[in-house]
Write a structure and sequence with these properties.
heterotrimer; A mainly alpha (235); B mainly alpha (220); C alpha/beta (285); A: 235 residues; 3 domains; 7 helices; 0% strand; extended; C: 285 residues; alpha/beta; Rossmann fold; 2 domains; elongated
């Protein structure tokens, strides 16, 4: 059987189904909804196998995303906070950061392309210097504080918050022990690390279950669009 | 020289900003606010690297007729159309080529830009990720095996969470799921968060001090 | 034994078809789940916090950050719409921004539609600030002066000309930062908004990130969290039951819940089948 035969059969069936849908169902009259629906089906076609329709849709998406980014960066970044304040409001000091930003373009000129390191290093230096104290406070400091087991947690009639806090602390310490103290040479993990693995696996199991829910939710959302906005089958 | 200047900039700016955090004086705050403003302005130009890479990649593909080159003009075409429509359509007070939509006059460029986003970019992007649902179902079926204590724990935790979501209105299961997330899961994730944060802080310090130089690129 | 072996080797395309059918049928039959939709405690925390914001007081605005792109839109849009309807019902001024570029137009689409539904006016009840580069610089800068980060709205209108911005200078005037994200932007808001400026932050996330956020919930760095589509459905119900009982509003998340439950059950069954096959064939060898 020639390679294109399954694709042609598939397209023929699709056309027939679409004609039937138009005749019997309250389908959307908006050309934009139809474009959206056809692009959705084009992407779903990858489930059967890689095909030209999917590749076309994928390339359209990549091109549109970059074009969108370009337009928005011009309006909301380059114009609104750089060029307009400089040329319309006369804030001459902005010449300095604009000049530094223009150095990004030297990436395209091989002879001076090392200059692109200047804006990168400025952004990294400022960013790292700002981030370190704040991340330290928000994670190391606050998270350690929240892990403390305090006497108030053991209220007379309800000791459970305190008990869970102790288990939490054991879990945190053993998890850290697993990551920091597991050695490759030792084939046997210390008992502390073994307890850590129990907590880690429970945590990853929970993440897996939630990931399944997340992906399925995305699918349901798309099918809601096809069934409701496009075909009008559901309210 | 070509490496010294960037490394020095990173070192000086990094240390200055770390010290600034602890100085409440008005000069220090003004310095910080100016630095943040300049960061935003500089950041607006960073896209050029990504854009140049993209155009070069597809241009080379077309030029040398590499595998899949027929699709590259589509990507480049979509880029140009969306950029032009957006650059014109989102300009303030834009009314070139007005059309009437739901009783209102708007520029055709504005109309097209909004619809390209809502009816092309959103469906394409959302569907690409929704395909993962099928893949995760297939992968779970094929490889999720209870072969050892570790994988049994993983499986049990995943099942408890999924069943807790399904039967949330049935009291015990929902509360069990909540407990699983609030005690063992939180313990593990907090441990991981602490470890990862220490790692991130260490890496940032290494960047500032010039020990980590990957961002300079490979060449001299 | 060939049966047990084949049980573990079902063609993936059959799995795809079964999953699709199991999702489509509850949607078409508009199955309703038995019993009331019970809200998770974290969802209720967000709802209660917004209930306690005084629209005429000092910390009266909600800053909504649409930090997701089209890829995760199906899971986060129901949450966003529900929270916006809640704020509209309470006449709380809304400032809308985005950290990833594409969040801007997602926000524009949602707000244009909902504002028309609820008779809210742009510039008076809400403003779309848009996007600016360097997320860290944006979040930190707003702690000092929002107009320095966003001198104009997304179209170029100066903020000083918009009535909704009157009296709103920085985080001191914000009652809640509500961040909706499918990636790790929630961490940015904790590190760079809550930590230095002590502004209350809550987040709506895709289910993938839920387990990772619990440390921040435990330390009260987040006042609450909306966990995926399920929380979106719960929030929709909370808002509808309190403010929109007689109105016909499309509850996107609520409609999806039966399909969600059915598909999770089917996936659990597939995993069990795979394991049965594995143990049955292993015993044979």
């Amino acid at each position: 059987m020639k390679k294109w035969v399954p694709t042609v059969i598939f397209l023929a069936v699709a056309v027939v189904l679409i004609v039937l849908a138009i005749v019997f169902l309250p389908v959307s009259k908006s050309v934009w909804v139809w474009i959206a629906a056809l692009l959705t089906l084009a992407i779903f076609s990858i489930l059967y196998r890689d095909n030209p329709i999917y590749r076309i849709a994928e390339h359209i998406f990549v091109g549109l995303s970059l074009g969108y980014g370009l337009a928005m960066i011009w309006h909301m970044a380059l114009w609104q906070i750089a060029l307009r304040p400089l040329f319309v409001e006369g804030r001459l000091i902005l010449i300095i950061p604009i000049a530094i930003g223009l150095l990004y373009f030297t990436r395209l000129i091989p002879k001076v392309s090392w200059l692109v390191r200047i804006p990168i290093s400025i952004a990294l230096g400022l960013g790292s210097g700002i981030a370190i104290p704040l991340i330290f406070q928000a994670t190391i400091f606050e998270q350690t504080k929240a892990s403390l087991v305090l006497p108030e947690m053991f209220a007379p009639g309800n000791p459970w918050p305190g008990i869970w806090a102790i288990i939490l602390l054991i879990g945190i310490v053993t998890t850290l022990a697993y990551f920091f103290f597991s050695r490759k040479e030792k084939s046997v993990l210390s008992p502390v690390s073994k307890v850590g693995i129990i907590f880690i696996m429970l945590g990853f199991g929970a993440t897996f279950g939630l990931t399944v829910m997340s992906r399925v939710s995305l699918l349901i959302g798309r099918l809601q669009f096809l069934l409701r906005d496009w075909l009008g089958i559901i309210e | 020289m070509k490496r010294r200047i960037p490394l020095t900039l990173t070192l000086v700016l990094g240390i200055v900003m770390m010290i600034q955090f602890f100085v409440p004086h008005q000069f220090s705050q003004d310095f910080k606010n100016t630095a943040l403003e300049w960061l935003r302005v500089i950041g607006g130009f960073a896209f050029i690297i990504g854009l140049a890479s993209f155009i070069t990649h597809h241009y080379t593909k077309i030029k040398h007729k590499k595998e899949g080159w027929v699709y590259s003009p589509i990507a480049l075409g979509a880029l140009v159309v969306m950029a032009v429509v957006g650059l014109i359509g989102r300009s303030p007070n834009m009314n070139w080529l007005p059309i009437t939509v739901q009783g209102q006059q708007i520029s055709v460029f504005t109309y097209l830009f909004a619809n390209f986003f809502t009816h092309m970019m959103i469906p394409l992007g959302a569907t690409m990720f929704s395909v993962l649902a099928f893949y995760i179902a297939s992968a779970a079926y094929r490889s999720f095996r209870a072969k050892s204590l570790v994988s049994i724990l993983l499986l049990v935790a995943a099942f408890v969470i999924m069943l807790a979501i399904i039967f949330y209105n049935v009291l015990p299961l929902g509360d069990l799921g909540e407990w699983l997330l609030s005690v063992p899961n939180m313990a593990a994730k907090r441990g991981i968060l602490l470890g990862a944060s220490l790692g991130a802080i260490a890496t940032s310090l290494k960047i500032i001090l010039g020990i980590e130089r990957g961002y300079l690129g490979g060449t001299k | 034994m060939k049966f047990w072996e084949r049980l573990g080797k079902i063609d993936r395309r059959i799995i795809y078809i079964v999953l699709a059918v199991v999702v489509i049928i509850p949607l078409i039959l508009t199955v309703k789940l038995p019993g009331k939709v019970r809200a998770m405690p974290r969802t209720k925390d967000v709802f209660d916090h917004i209930e306690n914001i005084d629209p005429n007081g000092k910390r009266r605005a909600i800053l909504i950050s649409v930090d997701f792109d089209p890829q995760t839109e199906p899971e986060l849009k129901p949450q966003l719409e529900a929270v916006v309807r809640h704020a509209f019902a309470r006449n709380i001024p809304l400032l809308v921004m985005a950290l990833p570029i594409q969040g801007t137009d997602i926000g524009i689409e949602v707000f244009t539609r909902l504002a028309e539904e609820h008779n809210k006016e742009y510039g008076i009840d809400y403003v779309i600030l848009g996007w600016k580069p360097s997320p860290v610089a944006v979040i930190l800068g707003m702690g000092n002066f929002i107009e320095q980060v966003f001198p104009t709205d997304y179209l170029g209108t100066p903020l000083s000309e918009l009535p909704v911005m009157e009296g709103i200078r920085n985080y001191d005037d914000v009652g809640l930062v509500m961040d909706f994200t499918g990636s790790s932007f929630y961490a940015y808001w904790v590190y760079y908004a809550h930590t230095p400026y002590d502004v209350p932050v809550a987040t709506g996330v895709t289910s993938v990130s839920v387990a990772d956020i619990y440390p921040f919930l435990g330390s009260r760095q987040f006042i609450g969290m909306l966990a995926g589509m399920k929380a979106g459905a719960e929030y929709e119900r909370l808002v509808k039951d309190k403010y929109y009982q007689d109105q016909d509003i499309f509850l996107r998340g609520t409609q999806a819940l039966p399909a969600l439950s059915a598909s999770l059950l089917v996936i659990i069954l597939f995993v069990i089948l795979g394991n049965i096959s594995h143990f049955a064939t292993r015993r044979k060898s």
